[in-house]
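Take a protein:
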Amino acid sequence: MPTTVPAYGKEAAERLASMADVTASDGALRRFLHGLPGVDAVGLQARAATLGTRSIKTTAKAYAIDLAISMIDLTTLEGADTPGKVRALCAKGANPDPTDRTVPKVAAICVYGDMVATAKEALASAGGSDIHVAAVATAFPSGRAAMPVKLADTRDAVAAGADEIDMVIDRGAFLSGRYLEVFEEIKQVKEACARPDGGAAHLKVIFETGELQTYDNVRRASWLAMLAGADFIKTSTGKVAVNATPPVTLLMLEAVRDFRATTGVQVGVKPAGGIRTSKDAIKYLVMVNETLGEEWLTADWFRFGASSLLNDLLMQRQKLRTGHYSGPDYVTVD
């Protein structure tokens, strides 16, 4: 199960502080972000496609399926969400397959802020108190709200018990080149994640990559968010036509690799939206392993934002275990 992301070591803190001049002004931040190496789109897409063709043996597949289950942020983000639906989702996250107690729990339950207390209570009742509760905030999914509203949204979710906050950046500001404004937004939300006990909810920063238009913008957004203190960078809200894709996720994995090489600070990655099958999930895990290594292959550093992925993973797991698929009523329809 996910653990607390460790505080920055002295060396990492010093290396990160040495980059303070990068964010000292809008001009300095612009020069830094536009000075990042340009993305070779053809090369990026080719490498992502190549990694997607890797085959793995049956024993490795079984391991990968359990690993993917343990990395899921099981999500319901609908206007029609009810306490009953959230409780049912929590029960499923804590015990994905009632017929097989060896199935791992999911990493987190992701809900709107007003459902956080319900989710915490339901997880405790279902034996899943070690599962995190993530709340979307900052006027999710549009990000169109005044800063005081976004901060209040975040603080309310943290006060309700959220372990993680999934915020969405102001894409309009980013695409307009107002980078320092976006940086300050992330920084302030990070500060709003603080709890009275001295701890803090982890901050996942959503870019909505389908709206960022270019790979170069995805790289810039990744660095901007990490400089501002993101614990995770996340592709999408799942509410637009184009969500997580292998090339974009690969680019973000490369960004966190380069950021750690520069600063010593490790940041997680969360692709979200459109990942529905075990085959797709395993492709992403291969990509993580090949780009970042086994160290990132835990729920502390990699997550899947998904609602239907768990069902397919359970079906494939059962197929490996018994040699046949169960009927359509084997998994619940969320």
